[in-house]
């Protein structure tokens, strides 16, 4: 059953055995399933992790056992079962409870199964209904926003009183660690912070971006297959698309999966035919494929990443999309290590730095649970060193872009300013922080720099 597989994936994520995406993909590959089962597995795994703070709050409020002392599989079964009870009204509550009980029994025996059964059934009885809106005009101590413009109404007051504990109320209802809520309220302001919280629990759409010259073919392929789409910043948004590899146009290399915020970073670089481009932090190759098309003919993209598994996917992406193999050089290694980066100089430099992912929490579903405040300074220092090193390869008159999918000032504007403070010939041409938009766009920060020539 997909639900049992998801419980084991969730336990694996908590135990640090891999990311949700990697563990789930591996589990699905080992046990081929009906597309509907695969879609359910993704919904359960990613949805449970998005809403884990809310789920844990309720399990602690209504439970009699200390949640952190339970077997990891039992904990995962409770979370997954409660997620279904609260947020998936198409699954009958008894079925969700029974599946969780079965997994708890297999992992820890009859006593654990009895505890899961009693706790989930008690919480299921508290679900008084669902309605449109985010619970405006209803006591927030018993409403849970669902992330799709609706809310769950409970019969019991389970959440903190916002008049007495506003941060606790926002944290529990919007499923975000308290320290992050506090930070955003102080750095962004109350309303923008709520915008970020709203986006962080929404189910993200699948964002497609056609390769240059292939937009009409992609639209025709989707229309012919009856796949509905929406326009968004030059790309297409699909709802409930399922596996990307099964979409029309994928095998033909018509598109890449790329959010508008990520696409903007590559576009701002302004790469042209014949340019040489250094890409630090190339990842899975979404930006690389577009840059390769932009510099052809005559140019070259040097794509660098330290993760060999990601670079294997990058090579697959380039092959699928028909990139000119002569236009891309792939280097596996630490960009900060001696001798890894070519000396250049390059016409264009793109640094996609490792970051906290606070602008893409709807997609990087476990990031909110792993991130700690002290990580921000560590990540900012790494980003600064990468940018400094890359700027050292930028020719006079060249353009560089620093991009992070983070909303935190340490990783964005502060990193850029610290990197160029000893580079009087490098200036900031523009910078922007994009807040995520629920279900439509990721958030992040991008800066365009230029070396005087």
Q: How would you describe this structure to a colleague?
A:
By secondary structure, the chain is of the alpha/beta class. Strand 5 and strand 6 form a beta hairpin. Helix 4 crosses helix 5 and helix 16 crosses helix 17. The radius of gyration is 23 Å and the shape is globular. It starts with a helix and ends with a strand. The relative contact order is 0.09.
Briefly, what is this?
This protein is an alpha/beta fold and 453 residues long.
Domain unit count: 2
- The CATH topology label of the largest domain is Rossmann fold
The CATH architecture category of the largest domain equals: 3-Layer(aba) Sandwich
The percentage helix is: 40-55%
For the termini, the CA-CA separation is 62 Å
Quote the average pLDDT: 94
What low-confidence regions span 5 or more consecutive residues with pLDDT below 50? none
**Main sheet strand line-up:** 10-9-8-11-12-14-13
Proportion of beta-strand residues? 15-25%
The CATH class designation of the largest domain is Alpha Beta
The secondary-structure class comes to alpha/beta
Question: What is the H level of CATH, i.e. the homologous superfamily of the largest domain?
Answer: Vaccinia Virus protein VP39
Task: Profile the largest sheet.
Answer: 7 strands, mixed
Q: Helix count?
A: 17
Q: Please give the number of β-strands.
A: 14
Structural Rg: 23 Å
Global geometry: globular
């Amino acid at each position: 059953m997909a639900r049992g597989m998801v419980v084991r994936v969730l336990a694996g994520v908590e135990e640090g055995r891999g990311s949700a995406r990697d563990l789930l993909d591996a589990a699905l590959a080992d046990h081929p399933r009906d597309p509907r089962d695969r879609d359910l597995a993704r919904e359960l795994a990613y949805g449970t992790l998005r809403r884990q703070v809310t789920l844990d709050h309720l399990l602690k409020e209504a439970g009699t056992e200390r949640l952190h002392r339970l077997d990891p599989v039992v904990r995962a079964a409770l979370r997954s079962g409660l997620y279904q009870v609260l947020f998936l009204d198409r699954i009958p509550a008894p079925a969700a409870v029974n599946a969780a009980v079965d997994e708890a029994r297999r992992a820890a025996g009859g006593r654990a199964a009895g505890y899961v059964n009693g706790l989930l059934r008690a919480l299921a009885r508290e679900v008084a209904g669902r309605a449109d809106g985010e619970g405006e005009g209803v006591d927030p101590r018993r409403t849970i926003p669902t992330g799709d413009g609706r809310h769950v109404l409970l019969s019991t007051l389970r959440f903190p009183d916002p008049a007495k504990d506003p941060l606790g109320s926002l944290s529990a209802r919007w499923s975000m660690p308290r320290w992050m809520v506090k930070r955003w309220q102080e750095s962004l302001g109350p309303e923008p912070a709520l915008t970020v919280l709203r986006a962080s629990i929404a189910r993200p759409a699948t964002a497609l971006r056609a390769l240059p010259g292939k937009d009409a073919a992609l639209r025709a392929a989707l229309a012919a297959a009856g796949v509905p789409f929406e326009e968004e910043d030059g790309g297409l948004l699909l709802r409930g698309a399922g596996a990307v590899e099964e979409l029309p146009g994928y095998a033909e290399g018509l598109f890449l999966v790329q959010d508008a915020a990520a696409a903007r970073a590559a576009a701002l670089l302004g790469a042209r035919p014949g340019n040489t481009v250094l890409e630090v932090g190339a990842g899975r190759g979404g930006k690389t494929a577009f840059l390769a098309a932009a510099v052809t003919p005559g140019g070259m993209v040097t794509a660098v990443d330290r993760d060999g598994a990601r670079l294997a996917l990058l090579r697959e992406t380039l092959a699928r999309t028909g990139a000119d193999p002569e236009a891309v050089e792939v280097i596996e290694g630490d960009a900060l290590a001696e001798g890894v980066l070519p000396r250049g100089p390059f016409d264009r430099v793109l640094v996609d730095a490792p970051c906290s992912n606070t602008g893409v929490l709807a997609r990087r579903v476990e990031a909110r649970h792993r991130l700690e405040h002290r990580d921000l300074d560590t990540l900012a220092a790494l980003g600064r060193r990468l940018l400094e090193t890359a700027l050292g390869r930028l020719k006079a008159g060249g353009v560089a872009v620093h991009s992070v999918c983070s909303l935190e000032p340490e990783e964005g504007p502060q990193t850029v300013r610290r990197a160029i403070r000893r580079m009087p010939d490098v200036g900031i041409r523009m910078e922007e922080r994009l807040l995520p938009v629920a279900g439509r766009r990721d958030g992040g920060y991008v800066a365009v720099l230029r070396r005087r020539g």
